[in-house]
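Class, carefully examine what follows:
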Amino acid sequence: MFEFLRTKPPIFKGLGTPVDVEDLMRTMERKLEITQYSEGEKVHFTIQQLEEAALNWYENLRGGLDDPKALTFEEFRAAFRGYYVPAGIKELKKEEFRTLQRDNKTVQ
């Protein structure tokens, strides 16, 4: 775990915009890439960075699982994004990106 903590991973309290949440997950993924941890360890270390409302969310998620220790990082990430980044927002951001205008020209 020392290896991971040395990268100074961010703390997440459950607040912020969907963009903040996506940035957080990308940051965590990058930091976990430099380690050789198992899927379970990746989940464990990510959970250690959750506080307040975010930790409550995880505890609720864990309570609904048959085997919380079997939760993979991919499953955790999907559940996390599903909760903190509503599908409507994802689609809106994709559309905003598609119609991004620079100097009155549409970028595609």
Observations:
- The chain has a mean pLDDT of 84.
- Strands lie at 101-102, 105-106.
- The first helix runs from residue 2 to 6.
